[in-house]
Design a protein that fits this description.
The protein has eleven helices and eleven strands. The chain has 389 residues and is α+β, with helices and mostly antiparallel strands. Pfam families: Acyl-CoA_dh_2, Acyl-CoA_dh_N.
């Protein structure tokens, strides 16, 4: 099953590459593209065998996402968002989760950061707010949203909570959410990462959850950082595509002023080699940290069994995957010079896609602060979501 999903993703990549201009112009994934992704099995790849799923490791998930991003970044981004449904299922009561997700190819989208307000009412909550960056929300089946909890209009925290104001995740059927069609961006245009709103939507208590309390089988994917890991496959897949494109161009171009082919150019040779080396280092940083973490967790250990250096390796590798891939694509763009600048060139889109990808939270200095603070015994800003507490 694992190899089949990866094979189907690789087979789909050329189709996604061909349809990339259409995906971008549509500003969300066309319905047919969503079904093509569904057909690969990517949306169910995080479900374990207890669900009848393939139970892909984080490394295998990332490879699948890389393969899809080689074709189109927006499609791959929506694929990894949708695939996280199987991870969210680990944090719901398992009976409820199997009622909510009767099939393994349903899609959950939404913003996990607590941007909404959830007022306690009998049996659950009334959820209101506006959330940004709902990637894939237009084709989602369910929407998960972070919100702070209020009781009688006042901020609420559970007894013994480390926080003065607790938040949770709230799972709502897509039809109860109003999507605001405002995704018009520099890059990653086809991801449909629109804002969305809710006003007093009732959410039963059993449809809420936190990443601090796994409800499913313990394991490497029942961790607060598990839904972030495979995201790195998107920038890595784009960078790989750009490098392969540059190599193809270099073998077909002739420099008339220098009187030699690009393949014989010292400038092209050295820059391509330099970029390949940087790509290999960035990619191995991701997979090396991931393999070590997975080995410890799969053996029944916890994140506390990792050394501090090993524990921060994962979030730091995510940051460098996003930032490093943007740099590799930008320098490849410069290497090809005027062969990059036309809209018909995939370099134009890859440059814009990686620029937008690098604005994601995992590529920001807050990650550096959290890792540095953890190493120094101080307070990480995003400790829980990065698995640093």
């Amino acid at each position: 099953m694992t190899s089949e999903i990866l094979l189907r993703a690789r087979e789909l990549a050329p189709v996604l590459r061909e349809r990339a201009p259409e995906i971008e112009a549509n500003r969300t994934l066309p319905a047919e593209v969503v079904e093509l992704l569904r057909g690969t099995g990517v949306f169910g790849m995080c479900y374990g065998p207890e669900w009848g799923g393939p139970g892909l490791t984080s490394m295998e998930q990332t490879e699948v996402v890389e393969a899809l991003a080689y074709g189109d970044a927006s499609a791959a981004w929506c694929a990894v968002i949708g695939a996280n449904t199987g991870i969210y299922a680990n944090f719901l009561d398992q009976t409820v989760a199997k009622e909510v997700f009767p099939r393994l190819d349903l899609v959950v989208a939404g913003l996990l950061q607590p941007a909404g307000r959830a007022e306690r009412v009998p049996g659950g909550f009334r959820l209101s707010g506006r959330w940004s960056f709902g990637s894939g929300v237009k084709h989602a089946d369910w929407v998960t949203s972070g919100a702070f909890i209020y009781d009688g209009g006042r901020p609420w925290a559970a007894p013994g909570s480390k926080h003065r104001h607790d938040s949770r995740q709230f799972l709502v059927p897509r039809e109860q959410v109003e999507v605001i069609d405002n995704w018009d961006t520099t890059g990653l245009c086809g991801s449909g990462s629109c804002d969305y709103t809710m006003d007093g939507v009732f959410v039963p208590e059993e449809h809420t959850y936190t990443f601090a309390t796994p409800q499913g089988r313990p394991g490497p994917l029942a961790q607060p950082d598990s839904f972030t890991r495979a995201m790195c496959g998107v920038p890595l897949g784009v960078a790989r595509a750009a490098l392969d494109h540059a190599r193809e161009v270099a073998t077909t171009r002739y420099d008339r002023m220098a009187g030699r082919s690009w393949a014989d150019s010292w400038r092209v040779q050295t820059e391509l080699a330099r970029l390949e080396g940087e790509f290999n280092a960035v990619r191995e940083g991701v997979y090396g940290a991931m393999r070590r973490q997975w080995a410890v967790l799969a053996a029944g250990g916890t994140l506390d069994d990792l050394t501090p250096t090993e524990r921060v390796a994962s979030p730091l590798s995510w940051l460098h995957a996003f930032r490093g891939s943007r740099t590799i694509v930008a320098r490849t763009y410069d290497l090809l010079q005027t062969w990059s600048i036309n809209r018909s060139s995939p370099m134009d889109r890859w440059l814009r896609d990686t620029t937008v990808l690098a604005q994601h939270l995992v590529a920001q200095d807050r990650i550096l602060q959290s890792a540095g603070a953890y190493l120094l015994g101080s307070e990480p800003e995003f400790g829980i979501s990065l698995g640093l507490v």
